[in-house]
Amino acid sequence: MPDAPEVRDPVVTPARVVIAVCLCAPFVALLWVGSYAKTDPAFIGIPFFYWYQMGWVVLSTLLTMIAYQLWQRDQRGRKAAAAARRGAEGGAK
């Protein structure tokens, strides 16, 4: 009797799409210079150009933390699913 085909988790999942968006958003926002290459509106005397970039430093940190947490949760879920499959295969034999 042939073996059952190996069941694999999907590579692209909603969590991984969110991770990709979290990691790509700062690059897109900062590489699109025309969107923030201006001085107005100033915030406490600091031109927009500078506080926009500094805001992205903080926001990038938060987005990277979110991406890391999602990645850790995704990996734990994949390990649990693989362990459950191995347990089901071992019990079926």
UniProtKB/TrEMBL annotation:
**Residues making up the signal peptide according to the UniProt record:** none
Claim: Secreted is one of the keywords in the record: no
Q: Short name of one Pfam family for this protein?
A: DUF3311
Q: Where are the transmembrane segments?
A: 17-37, 49-71
Q: Which UniProt keywords apply?
A: Membrane, Transmembrane, Transmembrane helix
- What is the official name of this protein in its record? DUF3311 domain-containing protein
Species of the source:
Streptomyces physcomitrii
